[in-house]
Design a protein that fits this description.
heterotrimer; A mainly alpha (315); B mainly alpha (275); C alpha/beta (530); A: 315 residues; MetI-like fold; 2 domains; C: alpha/beta; six-stranded mixed sheet; 34% helix; 26% strand
Amino acid sequence: MLRYAVRRLLSLSLTLLVASLVIFVAIEIVPGDPAAYMLGMNAAPDTVAALRAELGLDVGPVQRYLNWLGGMLSGDFGTSYTYRTPVVDMIGDRLMISLPLALYALTLSTLIAFPAGIIAATRRGSAADVSVMGVTQLGVAIPNFWFAMLLVLVFAINLRWFSAGGFPGWDQGLLAGIKALTLPAIALALPQASILARVMRSSLLDTLDEDFIRTARAKGLSTRQTLWRHALRNALIPVLTIIGLQFSFLLAGAIIIENVFFLPGLGRLVFQSISQRDLIVVESVVMLLVFAVVVVTFLVDLAYAAVDPRLRRTN
Amino acid sequence: MRWLQHRNLWLGAMLAAVFVAAALISFLWTPFDVTKLNIPEKLQTPSMEHWFGTDHFGRDIFSMIMVGARTSIAVALVAVSIGIVAGVPLGLAAAARHDSPLDEIIMRSNDLVFAFPALLIAIMITAIFGPSAINAIIAIGIFNIPVFARLSRAAALGLWTREFILAARVAGKSASRISVEHILPNMLNLLIVQGTIQFSLGILAEAGLSYVGLGAQPPIPSWGRMLAESQTMITFAPHLALFPGFAIVFTVLGLNLFGDGLRDYFDPKISRGRH
Amino acid sequence: MLLACKDLSLSINGAPILRDIDFQLSAGKVLGLIGESGSGKSMTAYSIMRLLPGGSEIGGSIELDGNDLGTFSEAQMCQVRGNDIGMVFQEPMTALNPLLTIGDQVAETVRVHGDASRAQAQQIALDTLRRVELPAEKYSPARYPHELSGGQRQRVVIAMAIALRPRLLIADEPTTALDVTTQAQILTLLRRLVDEDDMGLILISHDLAVVANTADDIAIMRNGRVLDSGPARSIFSQLKHPYTQALYAASAHVPARAGRRVDRAAPLLVVDQVSRDYRLPRQSLFGPRRYFRAVDEVSFTVYRGENVGLVGESGCGKSTLTRAILGLDAIQHGTITVGGEPVLAGMAMPRELRRRMQVVFQDPYGSFNPRHRVARLITEPFHLLDNPPTGSARSRAIDEALESVGLTTADADKFIHEFSGGQRQRVAIARALIIHPELIILDEAVSALDVSVRAQVLDLLAELSGRYQLSYLFISHDLSVVRSVCDRVLVMRRGKLVEQGTTNQIFEQPAHAYTRELIEAVPRLPEAPG
């Protein structure tokens, strides 16, 4: 188990390292002189020179990459050109919204998808199955940001149960914060839950066809006992893969959804930075999100090994 | 007739065909000119003249949705093509040289690309080159490459162990010839089904990117941007938000049903509905 | 009477599967249920267990100890399954839950019936695993299924079935997926359990010989009916039903082998000191690479016109050797020559050499590209010719190849799914023959076929070898088949060739202990009436 974990960790660290190189080259090398790019065409030469010095552009690209990498490892993401504040502080504040939002949505989507998928698979062809399949077919087709707009229209503007957007801040109490994130989380979760419920259903149907299910029935287990003791854990393996993949969609989705609800999360930050040509902030946010995706991949790999003994030993 | 038994296939094909037809017809004719502003007729609700109403510049929503279909379909179609043209050969090559350094490199590069959701790629490109529909195509296209590479590698690996491939090797055929002659035709069904799925995902992704301003730019109409513009007026003109949304949902729904139907048609054994 | 089936019938979604099945079984006895694929023997077992697919309708009655199981509710049947009736399946590799330990899976049988505590159930599981010869000292109950071999897994499945000492055990082809020596051990184990627990056993098999030595009574099934039944001894001594006769004849079939000259002066295939290593995954990141030697310094010769058998159990290296001879994988030591020319792996091998040998594989379903027609399938080896025939010469070659294997020229335009298993193997032979090779490697080429079809294909192979002076390397796990068609036999074990000699020598006076063990493990048909 440990060897497996270490192997995956090494492989993913390598992925992360190469990803950082790709991001660095794309954002700091491709545009030519980032200082000139950030200041625009009409900037005075001495302003550009000042910014160059400030960004540490006067050394070679290899040294710059190493400086950037070393800075990130020690928690220094550089300074935002536009706001003149350390990027790490800006990101920290925004992360306090984006991360809870993604986790909230992931929890919701799992809580909805598992029961729906299990009911549909165990009562195949029943009215419950048909309605789960119909609703999820629609759920997969709905863009989450449009769904978010409809939620605002109904629950915020017409029913006035929630506010239409904005975030009170966590210092206003946990409940107020959760309430403000509820509509965005639902908007993110429902389309994801549709996908997950379908995966759960088809994975469970496949597992129920396996030989060992027949063996369990021959031992005298009822269909219900067979489902809980044998089918579910086996069916979980492909579902885990999808949950891992979904997290990266959730992060990306969260960035878009924040726009609908005017939430001051990472998404708002990155779009502002793009329009202000603040490359340092864009670079840091992208790197952070890639890091999050890779970490989740690693967690899913560990979960795999916890579920499946065949992965734990390498002989 | 086998075709008639597949309700999803027909329903999906017809839904998708409506939007493809709308996109094609829009090149020749739209009810109104979508580039012409008509402020006096702004924000009208649906009527006999303007079937879906008008926007805040008085443009005909129905015409804009017809033209917007062009953007959505073009972006998604090109992005899927990028994925297939680059991904399938990579997957085939990785499978043909299974466990070799080539295989390892291809698979690790796939992992790398998977760490960048399409939105991040779009953000990076936009930060450097500014927003455009081309960005959306590149971002979604790059994201599609590992999808097709992994799918075709997995399918090809399964086929390489089959005895008819061994027979072809005994007949002295090279790995590349076997890949083209035996492997590719036997995974075509899978590729078509996945292509449909990625097509529908591409339409959703394009809408998302244009919604946040990373996709098609004015004056090119796009469904995502129509939704973004409608957002501030949703309290007094909700029809602006409804029709482009329905256009996206029905196109994606049609493509998904079509993909499901195709899968059932190719392989009735696995008619389980798709993930 | 322990079990009595009266007028048992079964239909699934209206299609009749079983009709008028009648048999009885008393405690301590073994009933052999024999039939070819599709005869309904497995469905009979599932009818008794009432584990049938949706849309099934059972008629007649099944009585266990005088109770009509037909009147039992599903909840009552759950009590019967595992408690009164245990069942063992064909595929030990997939019959166990891969995520649970073997101890837990055996203990589960105990836990679902009655109220044994967790510790009691674990103790019963330990005892039962010991009864099936998996003692805890050697095979920890904390192991997972993937850490066991096929034979060991089958023992676990048996342990799950007999943990509660059921009155009746049903074994559905329990040894078909296993090697011949493992098969003998499992059959002995089953017989021992029957005697110890005074249990009834229904032993289902397609193989007459497997059942003949274990069963007290036999029922022979075909197309959902029992055609012939009675005590094992009288079934074989009388052979009164024509189908029983046909089945017996096909099982004992020895093809006529005439008109063939073995030219001892002309070695065709020479395998000299050949070894093949596989790389194993690294144990640690910087540790040394480890290798597994799948073929270990193997040497033998096949002469022109000779039929040589290569026997061995799964994992002995015979498939690896086959791939090396065909030039599909590189070898690490030694040489392989065909007609004096060295065999090289991959594209390095000249086409002139490749065209001298062809291959027929086991799986009649996976050997063909499903998208091509027969004409294209069997002409694939034309790729090896410098000037492949075109137009009418090509059609003539196709017709000739098809006719020589007993197919018709009209079959050239069909797709492979239009053929039965036996016909597909004929197409495979036609594909091998079409460029007139000197050596054909038959890799388990008849193993997947029913006995009657197998007999016909063996006849065809014998006839073709005589007509074209073909050499065969006949690879099989089935010793009786090898015995009936080969001049000489090679015995392989753990990568090494342990013995080679003429078929008579090997079977009559085996020199190596392993060869003797193999031959003794082969189930024998009782003598036919004279």
